[in-house]
Design brief:
The protein has helices at 43-51, 64-79, 83-86, 89-107; strands spanning 16-19, 23-26, 37-40. By secondary structure, it is α+β, with helices and mostly antiparallel strands. A hairpin with a 3-residue loop joins strand 1 and strand 2 (23-26).
Length: 109
């Protein structure tokens, strides 16, 4: 097994591996809003857990759970267009990114 770590699945940042009471691998760069991490008893298990990624092709939009999630996220995005939130540049950028991702998913129905 290699010690190579995949980048953060949320921000693309470099992952770090720390040995504490267990092995911890995560995105600790301070810029990642998700800041994901895994804790495992061995380094090998932590690397395997961190490097595991969902197969997005295995959850098509005709899966009712995925379709429901997309529908709810679309509703949030559409309601988020209030003037109060549009004035915050980071919020506007995040919503635009989410809107584009939802549109891309919806096109692949």
């Amino acid at each position: 097994m290699t010690d190579e770590l995949k980048p953060c699945p949320f921000c693309g940042g470099e992952a770090a591996c720390i040995e504490e009471t267990a092995w911890v691998i995560g995105c600790f760069n301070g810029q990642c809003a998700a800041a994901p991490s895994v804790w495992e008893p061995s380094k090998e298990m932590a690397i395997a857990a961190w490097n595991t990624r969902a197969d997005l092709a295995a959850t098509p939009l005709d899966d009712p759970r995925v379709f429901g999630l997309v529908k709810k996220a679309r509703a949030v995005v559409d309601r988020w267009d209030s003037p109060l939130w549009k004035n915050l540049s980071h919020t506007g950028e995040s919503i635009a990114d989410l809107r584009a991702a939802l549109s891309a998913l919806e096109k692949n129905k």
